[in-house]
Amino acid sequence: MHKLRQIIILCLFLLTCNLVKAQIGDMRNILSVGGNAGININSVMFTPTVKQGTLIGPSFGVSARYISEKYFAMICGAQLEINFSQRGWKEQFDEQPENSYSRTMNYIEIPFLAHLAFGKEPTGVQFFIHLGPEIAFLISENEKFSDQFEASNVTMAQYGKTAENKFDYGITGGLGLEWKTKKAGNFLIEGRYYFGLSDFYNNSKKDYFDRSAHSVFTIKLSYLFDLIKK
User: Fold this and answer.
1) Consecutive 10-residue runs of the chain (230 residues): their mean pLDDT?
2) Which of 54, 68, 109, 172 could tie 136 with a disulfide, CB 3.0–4.6 Å?
3) Distance from CA of residue 67 to its chain's centroid?
4) How many CB atoms lie within 10 A of CB 14?
């Protein structure tokens, strides 16, 4: 399983790089920078299972995009981001609704994205696809219990247990729309999903959890302005 994860990451990274290097279409040289902000809808893929609700957290950061060519109708490029991303999970207690438990985990994440777009240029509306690998580094975490908390879920090994692996990696992809203007810059709205391939708890035979990976849906708004446009 570990080797399969490494192969997936390598293939996606090479795809991202090749889209920038390919020189077979109508050439572009457009470098754009800006910022992004949105919300994460978080959960964790646990094995054994932990019953969960929905944990909402912020996501924001900076973006840089380079468009290299247009191949037939497809505009090709790559996008790099550096974001603060709050992940984690919130547990669900069906028989004890007064109980509550949540764990917030703050990451600095760096997605490497292939950017594929279709639509009007240099101004107008474009539909785009993002796909690529992502790495992240855990910078802090915090768990919150309700007053007089009583553990009633079947799985309880997570309580008081901090993350053992602070480096995270996985694959991410998204769909969105971009409105490109002549003078005001570029406005983007996107829905994105991150599938974690690494576990933040150890997963050897002697450890309790076999799987503890992030699953994150993100809705974000971005603004980019063109530094170079040829």
Assistant:
1) 57 56 72 98 96 96 96 94 98 86 97 96 96 98 90 86 97 98 95 98 95 98 94
2) 109
3) 21
4) 11
Instruction: Provide the token pair at 133.
Output: 């690998």
User: Which residues, at least 6 apart from 207, have a Cβ–Cβ distance to it below 8 Å?
Assistant: 201
pTM of the complete model: 0.88
User: HEC string of the chain?
Assistant: CHHHHHHHHHHHHHHHHHHHHCCCCEEEEEEEEEEEEEEEEEEEEEECCCCECCEEEEEEEEEEEEEEEEECCEEEEEEEEEEEEEEEEEECCCCCCCCCEEEEEEEEEEEEEEEEEEECCCCEEEEEEEEEEEEEEEEEEEEEECCCCCCCCCCCCCCCCCCCCCEEEEEEEEEEEEEECCCCCEEEEEEEEEEECCCCCCCCCCCCCCEEEEEEEEEEEEEEEEEEEC
List the domain boundaries for the chain.
Answer: 2-229
- C-alpha to C-alpha distance for 226 and 187, rounded to whole angstroms: 12
